[in-house]
Structure formats: structure tokens, C-alpha cells
Amino acid sequence: MFDLRKLFIIIKREYLTRVRTKAFIITTILIPIGLLAVLAAPVLLQLMESDTAYEIVIKDETNQVYPRLAEIDSVRYVESQGRSIEELRTAITKKEIEGYIVITEEGITSGEEFELIYSGGGGISLVGDITDDIQSVIREVRLERAQASKEIMAILETRPNLKTRKLTAEGEEEESNTFVLFAFGYVMAFIIYAAIFGYGSYVMRSVVEEKTNRIVEIVVSSVKPFELLLGKVLGIGALGVTQFVIWVIAGAGIMAFIGPLAGMFIDPASLEAGQTAAEAFNIPDFSAIGIDVGIYFILFFLLGYLIYSAILAAVGSAVDSEADTQQLMIPVTIPVILAIVMLPKVATDPDSLFSVISSIIPFFSPILMIARIPITDVPFWEIGLSILLMIGTFLGCLALAAKIYKTGILMYGKKASFKEIAKWIRQ
Amino acid sequence: MINHILIPDSGSITINGIEASPETQKMVGYMPEERGLYKKMKVGEQLMYLSQLKGLTAAEADKAIKYWLDRFQAADWYNKEINELSKGMSQKVQFIATIAHDPDIYIFDEPFSGLDPINSEMLKEIVIELRDKDKTILFSTHRMEQVEQMCDDICLFNNGKAVLKGDLREIKKKFGKNTINIEFQGDPGFLDDLDGVRINNRSANFAEIRVKDDQDMQSILKHAMQSTEIYKFERVEPSLTEIFISTVGEDNINPKELG
Description:
The complex is a heterodimer of chains A (427) and B (259). Helix content of chain A is 68%, strand content 5%. Chain A has helices at 4-19, 22-48, 66-72, 85-93, 105-110, 123-145, 150-157, 178-213, 215-220, 225-263, 277-280, 291-317, 325-348, 353-360, 365-375, 380-408, 418-426, and strands spanning 56-60, 77-79, 99-103, 116-118, 165-167, 173-175.
């Protein structure tokens, strides 16, 4: 049906001329660095915390509140040492202190608001911290005054949490972190969405470029248009797969080593019993995500890319310049946008009938199925069926695209309408 | 269709007895009028790519490309991108891309446009060399003097119809010696008085006069002698430009196309 040797030469050119470009190398490196930054941010933030000391003067008329605040943070909360309000105000304007709070007997008994008079610096985290401290201290004082028993106070302090453990087929209970998996599925769906469009329009631009350069005439005097089309789609696809493989490996590496890495920054003595460094730093636990997810990620990208790039190549062949592609691209963008619109519903309720059906529809699968895979246990038949359907859809789209492409690349001077394209397909 | 880019609606095309197919594509070198090369690819890689697609192995392609680049004194372009080359330079690269796989049949569409006289001459030399190697060359151009210098057979198209075809010498003979080349010194105003003639290539002291309707050429000579001194008066076969004009008709063509 086609000449494999020529196809290989075309694939090689499409791949090699692009893999060496700066743009490719930069995006390939930047994405894992971005991921690393997202994961490392909490570690760094924790390390950097409270490096600036803000001094807040507590003018405590009751003498019951200040000692408790000093227990929480003796650097931040300082005594007024008999300074008057006027003196404290001057101190703020001279930037000797950050602010002051007056604690009155009335304030405690009525439970009304207290006022922090301050320079306005320190940002939202400072005000948030002080609010928390004041609230808990005042509550303690009031409970004590009401002679609440230690038991009641202990009850008020506990906040029962719901911990989730996933029961696997082997009957073992696994730590599960639904939120992390949810976010993971979401992120993968979005990366595939962006990559399908990115690589798809790469193919399209390349077709338009060859057409406007007229190089296409020379090339098709040596090879069949179908060989050129397939070579281009596969060559650029290989480029995408290269990038995804690098990302998956880098991502797996980062996720595996971020915990131990965090351990190097923390004093082991400061860890609570049984707590790992990763937990201390609030690093999400990715242990539930296996390498199979990485393989599906690459596979679903590839199949999604193949389906859409074949159509986009046909679009490119039907126009004379990139500016003309808008209208013809509408039928291509609609299914992708629809998939993104359905994504939140599918990700939050991954086992519903709606989610199952929509993620098996081949035009949606690359985005919706990959989102479900980490979030829930997708039965293998669903994944297998969606892969088969995508392969079938790709072959169908390729056959259709080849017909449009064959005629389109040799048509100059006008943008083809949908009607004309339909005619080319029937030929 | 010879290139098997388009498929004929009816009929068939055979090249050396083989139906036009991917197989025959290797036997043809095609250089379209609209030049096309990958702008961001290096000259060497580009030529390797295009010749390998024509069926050469990497080693054969490399050898042929180096030979032709040397021939065009362009060996140092090997690692340059097409973007960096001038129009004339990329034209030569395009030419090499057409001939590197040593086909039997060449199709050149306006190969000389955009070339300076030196390169034009070099290209012509190579085309003639190919002809002498018994290659078949299909050469399309609007420049009649090139046709006269290089072609054996011609085929003149007008509005998609072949209006004149055959051996160039025979065609010229058929038109007869109905043209006068005249060189003179003096007022060229006498040319305007002539009836039933068409004057091509007119300059201050030269004119090519196509005589229509079997007029007596001697009377033209007499008329010319009255106002000028004649250096040369020669009765010749018409130039191809003249044949072109009289066949296609002045009304049917865009004057600019005459070049």
C-alpha cells in the first residue's frame, strides 16, 4: 500500500528537524521544572516561615491574656510595660513595633471584637495568625472563668478527621488520598488537552507551510501524498511521545525522590513519631500512582493526538494561509472543548453512567478516560474498549484526511468550503 | 501527470513503456516554476532528503550532492539554511535537487528566472550537457532566444491548446525567409512609413522586419535607402519571437509575457 522506506525517511526528517529546535528542548525541560517547583514550594515555604519577626504589643488590662500569648510566641507578643496608647502609636509610626492590641475586661466578658492597630504590613498571614491566637486564648480564658472542666476543654479542642483507606482487590487496605488523585487526573487531562492542540496545530502549520512554500509539489513528485501525510503525523507524533516519555520519567523521579529530598532539609528530631519528612512538609503522597498510569498517559496522548492531527492536517491542506484555518477548525475544536466542559463532572463522579459513556467516546477518551484512571478503578474492559475505538477512529480519520489532503495540497488561491471538501472526499 | 502527482481523467501515460506510477517517479526530475524548499533546513540535509525520497541510498545521494555542489562552486553551502541564501543561490539548490538522482527525463519550468547571466550560462551548459547524454528534457519558458539556443522540438501552447508543434528547424523553414534584418545609419523614421509589415526588436540603427502578404522586399530596401545609409540588409528565417507572435496573435497574449 505504501513504501515503508520513503515513509521512514519522511518520519525521520519530520522528527529530527524538530527535536533539535530550541523551542522543543525548552518546553521539555520547563514542564518537569514547573512540576518540581509546585511540589517543592511547600517545603521551601515552611523553611522560610517566620524569618521576619513582627512585634505586637499586648496592652493587657486583665493580666490574664498576655502570659498565654507569650507562651504561643514570646518573640511576637510583647508586654506594653506601662506604655500609654499615645506612646504605642508613636512607636508604630517610628516602626519600632508592628502594632498593638488592647485587651479589656469587657472584651473578654462580652466576647466582642478586639482591635489590632498596626502599620498595615505583614500581609494576610500575619493578621490570620494573630486572629487565630487571640481567638484561642480568649476562648480559653472564658472557658476557665466559666469553670469548664478539663474534659470539656479537651473535647472542644479535638476536631475529628475522616481518614480514607482504599481496600484493594487483594484485600489490603491502602493509604489513599482522594484529593491528590483527583488533582492528578485533572492535571493529566489538561496536559493531554494542551498537547493535542499544540502538536495537532504543529502538524497543521507544517502542512500549510509546505503548501505555501510549494515544496509539497516537489515532494509529491517523489512520494504519494498519503505517505507524506502519514510520515508527517507519525514523525511529529514521535516527537510528542519523546517529550511525554521524558516528562513521565522525570515526573516519576521527582515524585519518588521528593520525600527523601525533603528529609535532608529537616531535623529528624523535630518529626513526630511515625511521621515522615514528606508528611511534615505536606508533600502529597503519590505512592498510589503506579507506572501503569504513566503508560496510559503516553498512550492516550498518542491516540488522541493521532485522531486530531489527522483531521488538522486535512484542514491545513484545504487553506492557503494559517489565518484561513479558523472556520475549518471549528468542527475539530468542538469535541475537545466539550470534553473539557465535561471534565469536572467526570472527575468528581467518575463511576457514574455519564462518566463511563462519555469517556469511552473516542473523541473524548484522551481527556476524560485519563482523568478517571487515577481517580477511580476503571475496569480494564472500559480502557481496552476506548483504546480500540480510538484506533478505529484514527484509521477512519486518516482515510478521510488523506482524501482531503491529496486534493487540498495542490489547490491554490482559495480557501475550500465545507461543500468542496465534501466533494473531494467523495471522489 | 507525468510526475504521477495527478491522475489522468482518461487515457494513460507511459514512460519508457511503464505506466506512470511511483516507479516512474524516480525516472523524472521535476523543477516547478514556483520554487519550493524547506526554508529552515540546511542545504545538505535538504538535498539528502529529497534525493533519498527519489530512491537513492544515503551513500549515493551524498556522492551526487557533493559532486553537484562542487560543480556549482557551492560546496561551502552544505551547512547553510535556505533562509541564508539569495534567490539565485537557492535556485541552484533547487536545480541540484532536481537532477541529483540522475533521472532520464527532466522537466524544467522556467529554470533561468532569477539567475544572473553567469549562473544562467552555467545552468545552460549543464542542461546542454544533459541533452548530449541523451537525456530527455522538457523545458518550458517564455524566453524565445533560449528556445532557439537549446531546443530541438517545440510545442507552443495558447489557452491550453497546442497551436504549434514539431521540430524547431522545420518550423522555422516552414515560415520561410520572410523576415529582414536591417542595420542602418540615419533617421529610422522610414520604418513608420512601411505598410503590411511588423517590426520587432527595433532600436536606433537596427530593426527586424517581418514582411506580410508576399510584398516585394526590394521596395523596402529602396525605401530605406532614400533616408538612410544601409550597413546590412539580410533576408532570414523569422525569429521564434516572431513565430510566437504571428501564431498566437498579438491580441491573445499579454504583452508582458513576451519578456
